């Protein structure tokens, strides 16, 4: 059973295939449709629904290990797969903390991990008692800023409550910037930490990532990496873990959220690190020794291609490579829609200003032409 089943056919599964080729691992994909991002590149593919156990079982057939493009597989289905002899990695006991922000906050608070002040809220009165301004979040199912509401006035909370979802409130953190600490972890506990990166968001969506985070206090970088290792170890995460962090104005780090899969803040590693996050995710879930995470060059900048005016992305490649020959372009095979993540560009080099300018220029040509 050398096959690894991957649940979910987005760009993360697509980029896993790139690493699987080198490792000689055969991926078997459960895709939402016949032509979704990863379905275009993984021949052993079945179309199905990740909330339907029989579809998950069909995908897992012949695979020792099951891993994920996203965190939305119901925990009871993961337990059923485990009972049938497949290893879901990460397992349901760990994945819970990436699936549910209430569980995540409760557990991290119990562990003494620094988080924004937070509480479960069910009514407008609860929010008033918590205090404004606040950020309301659905405990489940949010992504890319969906399911997140900044509440400055009481009426701002109406949309959140009308969603009918379970909510938590968090203090609105006045952060200096957002950081991400990623690690890979094997079943036996071996871990490899990546350099801590800075991620810059626009409208709740990651816009660009600079690796490593510029001017980060080395002690804070070490603390962030150690925190990620501790979280992965105590929660028993297998595969990649991303700990999204806020760096506060007074130099502290607070955990925003956890992702237990390759993450947008680690895409730079494909072109900028000795071992990419996708390769280390597969090595970890297949229980192979992990690869070094060291950067290849002093700076890597990854800029997301968020759908804009350009509809024919491939048609823009000549212009991109003309302008920035060393840009590494990753297109996801997705239809362009405004603001949708349809690809990313990474540029590496020695001079941060030049690297940043070139990465933005290349991505800009894929967004606005
Ligand atoms: P998602 O699950 O959609 O990624 P996040 O919890 O990461 O949701 O929130 C999305 C973005 O909203 C964050 O990257 C950050 O910019 C902002 N944000 C989230 N929580 C807070 C907070 N407590 N204070 C200030 N900004 C926040």
What does this structure look like?
The protein is an alpha+beta fold and 369 residues long. It folds into 3 domains: 4-88, 3-Layer(aba) Sandwich (Rossmann fold), CATH 3.40.50.20; 117-171, ATP-grasp fold, A domain (Dna Ligase, domain 1, 2-Layer Sandwich); 175-367, ATP-grasp fold, B domain (D-amino Acid Aminotransferase, Chain A, domain 1, 2-Layer Sandwich), CATH 3.30.470. The protein has 12 helices and 18 strands. The protein has helices spanning 11-23, 53-60, 75-83, 92-99, 101-110, 124-130, 158-162, 218-235, 268-272, 277-285, 317-323, 352-367; strands spanning 3-7, 26-31, 45-47, 63-68, 87-88, 118-121, 134-138, 148-151, 167-171, 175-185, 191-193, 197-202, 205-211, 239-248, 253-259, 299-306, 328-331, 341-349. The strands form 3 sheets. Strands 10, 11, 12, 13, 14, 15, 16, 17 and 18 form a 9-stranded antiparallel sheet that branches. Strands 3-2-1-4-5 form a 5-stranded parallel sheet, with helices on both faces. Helix 1 crosses helix 10 (277-285), helix 3 (75-83) packs antiparallel against helix 4 (92-99) and helix 4 packs across helix 5. The model has no long low-confidence stretch (mean pLDDT 97). The structure holds adenosine-5'-diphosphate.
